[in-house]
Every structure is written in C-alpha cells, then in structure tokens.
C-alpha cells in the first residue's frame, strides 16, 4: 500500500511540477536558465507537498473519511471531460481546438461546481433531516460522471461544428483512421495560408519512416539506437571547481556536468506502429480478459 501510494504521489508531483515549470513559468520568464527551471520545479514540488498535507482534514471530512470514495468522487468530477476530449480527438476528426478547449472549460466548470457543493454541504448525521440540494444526494457521483461526459461531448460537437475544421493534411497519423497513412503531414503550428506567404523548398521532407506499415516499402523498424545524431563536437570548457554546498545544491536540483553545457538540438525520430501478429493477438486477448474480469467483479460486488 505504501509503495503504491508513494509511486502515485511522485507521479502526480512530478507531472504537476512539469506543467507549472514548462507551461506557466516559461511564459513569465522566457529566458530562464536550466538551473532556474530545475530550482522552480523542486520548489513547486515542496509547495505541492505542503498543499497535500494541508488537504488531509478536508479528506477526513469528505465522504465520511473513506479515502477510496473520496478519490473516486474527485475523479468523477474532474476526469470525464479529459477522457471525452481525448477519445473524440482520436475517433472524430471534425473535433478542432476551439471545440476541445471550450468543452474542457465547460466540463471543468460543471465538475468544480459539484465538487464545491460537496465540500460546502456535508452529509447530515444519522437521524438528521436531509438539507442538501437534491443533486447531491439523489445523483451519485458515478452517475454524475456520465452526465458530465455527455455535457462535455455536446459542447465539443456544437463548438466544433460552428468553427472551422482542422485541415486533413494536419491530421495524418493523428487519428485512428489515418494511423497507417504514408502521406506527409503539415505541422499544427503552421497557420492556414502560411504556405502561400512563405517560400517552399523543393527538397523532399524526410520523415525517417522506414517501415512498410508507414512508407509502403520494405524496411526495418527504426530503433532508438539506430538513429544517432551527428553534430559537431565542441571543445569542452574547463571544469570549474565548486564548493561542497554548491555541488549539493546542484545534486538536489538534478543538475550534472553534462546538463550544464549547451544543449544540442536533437532531431526527433519517428517510429513505426506496425505490430507482429502473435504479440498483438496476445496483448489484445489479455486486455479483453482483464476487461471481462473487471466487469464481472464490479457486477459481483455491486
């Protein structure tokens, strides 16, 4: 239990620190150094630890102190919009950025409203009259998750149909139906009409796909060790001797000598999604077996 809890906490703290440092702090400090980013990330993790400790009394009050029910209720309030947008983005090519954004914002607003109401209106004690709004005690949080997912899907569909669609050239190998396409893909950051303003080069676009499932030609799957970047070697700077507390600070921030130099631009390598029949069938069978087992357990213990 402790090992599972620690792994979950470290994953959440690391993800939250990465989101804050990369998506928020770099917007405020665009020229921040690597040392500053690492320090901000570590400080934000300490802040998250303090918030999690201060949140313990709220967990004890909510859901009658039952941690599992509390976790499932919070997931039901905040998780469905993300799931709906992710699934729709894979299987419905018409979904665009405004539809995804406003459906997430709408679902988040509805979910936060229900969550705040749960915090404000605590469950009455045994023998007391019910004073909470009907949506709190008549609509279980799992049923509310289904309602929230439906609202999110409706908002995504309506907003996407009222706004321009994403060009098909930008969706190659990004949806379920185009995952095996071999056509070149236009990057998302290229605005509509940018090709008319910028001169185009006659050089072919190298995608580094060598597998038949992607290019249509016979070849081998690219492994990570097969594509090594060749860049001019720079002369190593003379090593600077730091004090012991400076080295301890660098160790705490996750900085080593290899990271303190100039970062080299690494060209991304694209991998094939072709699967061999035997491992694919085994994985599909085990996934289906796990799904059936979990469905049986939910129904049996319900």
Automatic annotation (TrEMBL):
<feature type="transmembrane region" description="Helical">
    <location>
        <begin position="37"/>
        <end position="58"/>
    </location>
</feature>
<keyword id="KW-1133">Transmembrane helix</keyword>
<feature type="transmembrane region" description="Helical">
    <location>
        <begin position="141"/>
        <end position="163"/>
    </location>
</feature>
<feature type="transmembrane region" description="Helical">
    <location>
        <begin position="282"/>
        <end position="301"/>
    </location>
</feature>
<dbReference type="InterPro" id="IPR038377">
    <property type="entry name" value="Na/Glc_symporter_sf"/>
</dbReference>
<feature type="region of interest" description="Disordered">
    <location>
        <begin position="219"/>
        <end position="239"/>
    </location>
</feature>
<dbReference type="GO" id="GO:0005886">
    <property type="term" value="C:plasma membrane"/>
</dbReference>
<comment type="similarity">
    <text>Belongs to the sodium:solute symporter (SSF) (TC 2.A.21) family.</text>
</comment>
<dbReference type="GO" id="GO:0005412">
    <property type="term" value="F:D-glucose:sodium symporter activity"/>
</dbReference>
<feature type="transmembrane region" description="Helical">
    <location>
        <begin position="99"/>
        <end position="121"/>
    </location>
</feature>
<dbReference type="InterPro" id="IPR018212">
    <property type="entry name" value="Na/solute_symporter_CS"/>
</dbReference>
<keyword id="KW-0812">Transmembrane</keyword>
<dbReference type="InterPro" id="IPR001734">
    <property type="entry name" value="Na/solute_symporter"/>
</dbReference>
<keyword id="KW-0472">Membrane</keyword>
<dbReference type="Pfam" id="PF00474">
    <property type="entry name" value="SSF"/>
</dbReference>
<feature type="transmembrane region" description="Helical">
    <location>
        <begin position="70"/>
        <end position="92"/>
    </location>
</feature>
<protein>
    <recommendedName>
        <fullName>Sodium/glucose cotransporter 4</fullName>
    </recommendedName>
</protein>
């Amino acid at each position: 239990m402790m090992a599972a809890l620690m792994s979950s906490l470290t994953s959440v703290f690391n993800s939250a620190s990465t989101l804050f440092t990369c998506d928020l702090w770099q917007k405020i400090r665009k020229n921040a150094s690597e040392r500053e980013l690492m320090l901000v990330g570590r400080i934000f993790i300490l802040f998250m630890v303090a918030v999690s400790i201060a949140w313990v009394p709220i967990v004890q009050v909510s859901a009658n102190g039952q941690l599992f029910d509390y976790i499932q209720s919070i997931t039901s309030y905040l998780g469905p919009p993300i799931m709906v947008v992710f699934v729709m983005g894979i299987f419905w090519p018409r979904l665009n950025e405004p539809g995804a954004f406003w459906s997430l914002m709408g679902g988040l607003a509805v979910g936060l409203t229900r969550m705040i109401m749960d915090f404000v209106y605590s469950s009455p004690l045994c023998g007391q009259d019910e004073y909470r709004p009907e949506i709190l005690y008549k609509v279980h949080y799992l049923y509310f998750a289904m309602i929230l997912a439906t609202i999110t899907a409706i908002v995504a569909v309506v907003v996407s149909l009222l706004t321009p669609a994403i060009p098909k050239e930008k969706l190659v190998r990004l949806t379920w139906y185009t995952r095996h396409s071999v056509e070149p893909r236009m990057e998302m950051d290229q605005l509509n009409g940018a090709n008319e303003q910028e001169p185009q080069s006659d050089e072919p676009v190298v995608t580094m796909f060598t597998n038949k499932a992607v290019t249509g030609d016979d070849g081998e799957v690219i492994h990570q060790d097969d594509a090594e970047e060749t860049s001019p070697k720079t002369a190593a700077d003379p090593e600077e001797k730091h004090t012991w507390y400076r080295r301890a600070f660098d160790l705490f921030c996750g900085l080593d000598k290899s990271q303190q130099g100039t970062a080299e631009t690494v060209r991304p390598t694209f991998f094939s999604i072709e699967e061999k029949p035997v491992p694919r069938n085994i994985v599909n069978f085990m996934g289906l077996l796990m799904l059936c087992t979990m469905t049986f357990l939910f129904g049996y213990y319900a």
